[in-house]
Amino acid sequence: MTQHEYGLIVDKQPKKWPEQFITGGQIKGLANSPADWVVNEIIHGPGEDPEIADGQAVDLALVDPPAGIKRFITRKPTTSPGS
Question: Cα separation of 79 and 29, whole Å?
Answer without folding.
Answer: 20
